[in-house]
């Protein structure tokens, strides 16, 4: 039997979910104008190759500068874009902006720099992602090898056949594929065998305090061994602390992304980061003493 508080709780929940629904609707309305109003921008988070001691590229991360709310997190607005059917358009905008920016990195003269662009599962449903990506590369005269497409493990696992076709088409062009948030998506080993990809990104949750957590250590070691066995690359994401970096490096991971090296940066700051290899070397070399 419902206690005296039963109905009140229900009312509270109703009021709270109605408010959340209104907020989501307001967000969706604002998102509809965001592209035309130039409210989106990209940040670039450096990816570090510890073996060569240099920046190997960057992941492009979408930002939305809302006129009143300020910066809104992509974890909040990307699901709304997906549900509202806007992700294809915004995703193409991001791809185009990232390729244009990556083309300008040639001038830096620090060796090739790849750009990684996130693609949502909903974009796989859309009309011919493959030919749109191809045309975007041509528009900016960007070599296909300089572009990496990131798809989460869960998106790949949700529709293996579709992911397989997309991956084959993109790899045929010379574009690299990275599986994002690896270890969180429940993909089967048979799916991993069917899909052809170039890189695994170890999810941050396994990287956090890896030097002190045996469960995370077992998972990271397995993923590193899996990548090695498959002959593909592996990068650790969300590396925040020196201890995490050192542990992973000692256990065979040589690519890193995370606040320990750099947060996502505006385009000019990313270029400045690349132009200053001494700062990166200091950070890597300081650690080299312990790495042995
Ligand atoms: P993701 O692709 O796994 O990107 C990594 C996220 O971790 C980014 O969050 C990044 O800022 C954050 N991060 C990087 N290093 C660290 C670290 O050391 N510590 C911590 N705590 N966080 C770190 P962000 O930028 O908020 O993006 C969140 C997610 O939104 C992304 O996760 C990706 O799934 C999605 N996303 C971002 N941009 C795009 C886009 O252009 N298209 C699509 N479809 N999704 C995007
Ligand atoms: Mg990503
Ligand atoms: Mg990730
Ligand atoms: Mg993530």
UniProtKB/TrEMBL annotation:
The keyword Protein transport does not apply. It comes from the Bacteria. Keywords: Membrane, Transmembrane, Transmembrane helix. Residues 24-278 form the EAL domain. This is Bifunctional diguanylate cyclase/phosphodiesterase. It comes from Sphingomonas agrestis. The chain holds residues 240 to 531 of 540 of the full protein.
């Amino acid at each position: 039997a419902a206690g005296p508080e039963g109905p009140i709780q229900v009312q509270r929940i109703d009021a709270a979910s109605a408010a959340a629904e209104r907020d989501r609707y307001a967000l969706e309305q604002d998102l509809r104008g965001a592209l035309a109003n130039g409210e989106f921008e990209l940040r670039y988070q450096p990816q570090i190759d510890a073996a060569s001691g240099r920046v190997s590229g960057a992941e492009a991360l979408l930002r939305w500068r809302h006129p009143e709310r300020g910066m809104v997190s992509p974890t909040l607005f990307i699901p709304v874009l997906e549900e509202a059917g806007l992700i294809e358009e915004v995703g193409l905008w991001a791809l185009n902006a990232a390729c244009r920016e990556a083309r300008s990195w040639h001038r830096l003269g620090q060796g090739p720099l790849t750009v990684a662009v996130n693609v949502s599962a909903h974009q796989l449903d859309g009309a011919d992602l493959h030919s749109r990506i191809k045309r975007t590369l041509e528009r900016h005269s960007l070599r296909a090898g300089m572009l990496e497409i990131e798809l989460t493990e869960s998106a790949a696992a949700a529709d293996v056949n579709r992911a397989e076709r997309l991956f084959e088409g993109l790899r045929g062009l010379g574009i690299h594929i990275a599986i994002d948030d690896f270890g969180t998506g429940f993909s089967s080993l048979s799916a991993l065998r069917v899909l052809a990809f170039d890189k695994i990104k170890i999810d941050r949750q396994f990287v956090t305090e890896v030097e002190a957590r045996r469960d995370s250590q077992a998972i990271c070691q397995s993923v590193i061994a899996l990548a090695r066995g498959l002959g593909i690359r592996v990068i650790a994401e969300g590396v925040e602390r020196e201890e995490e970096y050192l542990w992973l490096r000692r256990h065979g991971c040589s690519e890193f992304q995370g606040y320990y090296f750099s947060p996502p940066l505006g385009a000019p700051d990313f270029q400045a980061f690349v132009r200053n290899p001494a700062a990166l070397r200091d950070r890597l070399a300081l650690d080299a003493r312990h790495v042995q």
